[in-house]
Each structure stands twice: as structure tokens, then as C-alpha cells.
Inverse folding.
């Protein structure tokens, strides 16, 4: 690794010390479906968000619930204490597109229809509610 690259990596690592997050890569569902679920919990208190996700009947909600639990565990590990009710909230959560699997399906008259199997990456950041220290 070059000097500039190492300096940039160290600066990024230092900036991320105070952030608590979890990432989920290559989820085999379309980003559009995942964003419907993610929009329900953005800005919510974490235990309220877990309740929303638990009782949602969407398949993507199960994955986001597990990811949110991971982010809470990361916060607890870095702060060496358990998260109390009303202490944390979902500060940022976003969905990015992941690589797409492209396939061809036989179609009439010797043609082929393209099948695009989409996938996504989800990132969730949790933080303390201001004034709750």
C-alpha cells in the first residue's frame, strides 16, 4: 500500500471511530423492494424500528431486522454497555445497487428475452439520541 493510500485509510478509520454501523452485501432482492422497507424505519428509535420490522410481512424486513440487531450489537461492543430503551435511533440507512446477474430466456421466433436478477447492499448507522447521554 502506498503512503497516500495508507494516510487516507488511516484518516477514514479515525473518522469512523465514532460511528456505529453494519453492512449487508449482495442481498438477492431488488433495491426498489428493499427501499420500501428501509423507508419505514429511517429516523425511528431502534426498538420501535425492530417492532415495525418484526410485524412487517415483507421478506426484506427479516434481513433488515437482523442487520439492525447487528448495528445495535456493534454500538454495545464499542461503548461496553447495553442499549437502553429510547437511547438509540436509526440515524442513516440506505440501499445501494449491487452487481446484477444477467441471463437470457428463450422467447418465440428465435429471440431471447433478457432477465436481470437484481441485488443490493444495505448500510445502517445507529447513534445516540441527542440529550440522552
Amino acid at each position: 500500500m502506498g503512503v497516500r493510500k495508507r494516510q487516507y485509510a488511516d484518516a477514514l478509520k479515525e473518522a469512523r471511530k465514532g460511528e456505529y454501523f453494519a453492512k449487508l452485501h449482495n442481498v438477492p432482492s431488488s433495491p426498489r423492494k428493499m427501499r420500501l422497507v428501509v423507508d419505514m424505519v429511517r429516523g425511528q428509535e431502534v426498538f420501535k424500528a425492530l417492532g415495525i420490522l418484526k410485524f412487517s410481512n415483507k421478506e426484506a424486513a427479516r434481513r433488515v431486522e437482523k442487520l439492525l440487531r447487528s448495528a445495535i450489537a456493534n454500538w454495545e461492543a464499542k461503548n461496553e454497555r447495553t442499549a437502553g430503551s429510547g437511547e438509540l435511533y436509526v440515524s442513516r440507512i440506505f440501499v445501494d445497487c449491487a452487481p446484477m446477474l444477467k441471463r437470457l430466456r428463450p422467447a418465440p421466433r428465435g429471440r431471447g428475452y433478457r432477465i436481470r436478477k437484481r441485488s443490493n447492499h444495505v448500510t445502517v448507522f445507529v447513534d445516540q439520541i441527542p440529550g440522552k447521554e
